[in-house]
Amino acid sequence: MHTPPDSNGQRAVVLLSGGLDSATTLAIARAAGFECHCLSVDYGQRHRAELHAAAAVAAALGAAEHRVVSLSLDIFGGSALTDMAIDIPVDGVQPGIPVTYVPARNTIMLSLALAWAEVLESSDIFVGVNAVDYSGYPDCRPEYIAAFESMARLATKAAVEGTGLHLHAPLINLGKAQIIQLGAELGVDYALTVSCYQADSAGRACAICDSCRLRQAGFAAAAVPDPTRYAA
């Protein structure tokens, strides 16, 4: 993990889900001067409205490019986000790893970002994981990010030939309110983002899933008006 340096216009791959955290991460990368190439993944998630949000965010924040990779993790299931037979939890954030955890999702997405970064001759990847106000996912922890970065430096042609890779997780130690305040300062339009685990096709949020609760609490604590559109 590294604090984003002044990039001098270098290319970076930014994982962009369309949610609040990834939008803020894109804004951070852009503010650091990177030419941002955004990558979203259509993995069979029930909240596919986030992909439309990602496209809108990429355009609004001046990304050089936005690509969507289709990779159907719903063939495995194992998560409330990819298996319609598993209900989204709506009783508040509970201890432990919730059923919304998608097995190996961040590892898969970071691997795709790593592949694209090599093709772009980029040594910088940005990801919006957060280990403070989050739902307990194991692949959002600092030690995971550090381990993936170490692995990437062993696994790529560019690294073997001497070009180091940096995995930036600028939100890793920030609370949701801090993230929102930072994004507001950087000009993020959070009305474009979709965080809800069961957003409808128009991107309207349910207000009761874990992600919605964390988002609501973040806006309240940041004293920033919440622009989220709700279904009811």
Approximate shape: globular
The ordered H/E elements are EHEHEHEHHEHH
CATH C-level category: Alpha Beta
Number of domains: 1
Query: Helix content range of the residues, please?
Result: 25-40%
Q: Report on the biggest sheet.
A: 5 strands, parallel
Task: Outline the structure in words.
The relative contact order is 0.19. The protein is globular. The longest helix is centred in the middle third of the chain and has 16 residues, at 105-120. 35% of the residues lie in helices and 11% in strands. It has a single domain (11-222), classed as HUPs (Rossmann fold, 3-Layer(aba) Sandwich). With 232 residues, the protein is of the alpha/beta class. The mean pLDDT is 92. It has helices spanning 20-31, 49-60, 105-120, 142-155, 157-160, 176-185, 210-222; strands at 11-15, 35-42, 65-70, 124-126, 166-168. A 5-stranded parallel sheet has the order 3-2-1-4-5, with helices on both faces.
Spell out the blueprint of helices and strands.
Elements: E1 11-15, H1 20-31, E2 35-42, H2 49-60, E3 65-70, H3 105-120, E4 124-126, H4 142-155, H5 157-160, E5 166-168, H6 176-185, H7 210-222
Parallel strand pairs: 1-2, 1-4, 2-3, 4-5
Helix pairs in contact: 1-6, 6-7
